[in-house]
Amino acid sequence: MNILNRSAITISYKKPFIDWNNDLTPDMLLEENMLGESKTYLTNAFFDDAEKLMKKYFKDIFEMELEGMWTDENDWPQKRTFKLFNEWFNYEVSDIVIDLSKNEIYD
Questions:
Q1: What is the CA radius of gyration of the chain?
Q2: Is the pLDDT of residue 98 over 70?
Q3: Which of 1, 61, 72, 78 is the most buried (most CB within 10 A)?
Q4: In a domain? residue 52
Q5: What is the number of structural domains in the chain?
């Protein structure tokens, strides 16, 4: 077991994100039971304030999530504010990341 020199931001979708996706892809609907599924982004290990950390990274995360569902940026929300991010996503910040796997990490 290793403690990594990273912190983690874990996000999950809220209903407005699912509704946006479903409006664009009615033939491939995301189910509302996706609510609660999550994705984790790693950041530098040390931070003083979780909200400051989120304000630093929310635009990158927001755009990665949008692009993961729909690549035409014309259909993305034009004003991707921290307020809108909070309406579309839940997030949790972990200051310690522990690797339980015995496999080597690679990128």
A1: 15
A2: yes
A3: 61
A4: yes
A5: 1
